[in-house]
Structure formats: structure tokens, C-alpha cells
Specification:
11 strands, single chain, 0% helix, 4-stranded antiparallel sheet, mainly beta, 7-stranded mixed sheet
Length: 112
């Protein structure tokens, strides 16, 4: 079965950068889209960024210009480069394949 494993979370000060990775296994990424979601305490899970199999990207307005999504064309592994982090970016970040398969999540904490 498809497995997604995130890594790269942690703590950083506001204005800093962080890179998240998502290792995908047993997944045919060539016919699917992948995305990063996040869920802050007391809030609903929201899509942060998405990339299609053809490379088309989407970013939520709140992260546009600060976050960059990318995908390894060999294995389909996903990455999220996060720059100019703000305290509002604090959340558990999840990697997802088509919104159906989810990773376990990785905590990102941004302090002022």
C-alpha cells in the first residue's frame, strides 16, 4: 500500500526557513497530485500547496511567495521549502496523495 513519511519539521524563529520532505513509496505519482496540508491547534486542516503530475502548482494565499513545493521526478518524493516563516505558520504539516493517503504529520513551530 502507498506510504508517505514526512520529515524535516522542528522549531525556528520567525523569519527563518525550513524544508519539509515527504518520502513516497508504492505510489504512482505520475498520474496523481500531491499536496501539503497543515492543521493548527483549534483549526481545520487546510491545503497549503499542491502539485500536479504535470508540475502545475497551487499555493494558498497565506503562503504564496514564501513557500515552494517541488517533486522528485524519479521517485515522486515531495518537498516544501518554507521561507520567511511567521508564527501563524505553526502547525502540524501533512503530506498527502490525492487527499486520500496521508503521512503521519510533522510539527513545525515558529516562535517570535
Amino acid at each position: 500500500q502507498v506510504q508517505l513519511v514526512e520529515s524535516g519539521g522542528g522549531s525556528v524563529q520567525a523569519g527563518g526557513s525550513m524544508n519539509l520532505s515527504c518520502a513516497a513509496s508504492k505510489f504512482n505519482y505520475r498520474n496523481s497530485w500531491m499536496a501539503w496540508f497543515r492543521q493548527a491547534p483549534g483549526k481545520e486542516r487546510e491545503m497549503v500547496s499542491r502539485i500536479s503530475s504535470g508540475g502545475t502548482t497551487y499555493y494558498a494565499d497565506s503562503v504564496k511567495g514564501r513557500f515552494t513545493i517541488s517533486q522528485d521526478n524519479t521517485r515522486g518524493n515531495l518537498a516544501l521549502q518554507m521561507d520567511s516563516l511567521a508564527t501563524e505558520d505553526t502547525a502540524v504539516y501533512y503530506c498527502s496523495a490525492c487527499g486520500k493517503v496521508w503521512g503521519q504529520g510533522t510539527q513545525v513551530s515558529v516562535s517570535s
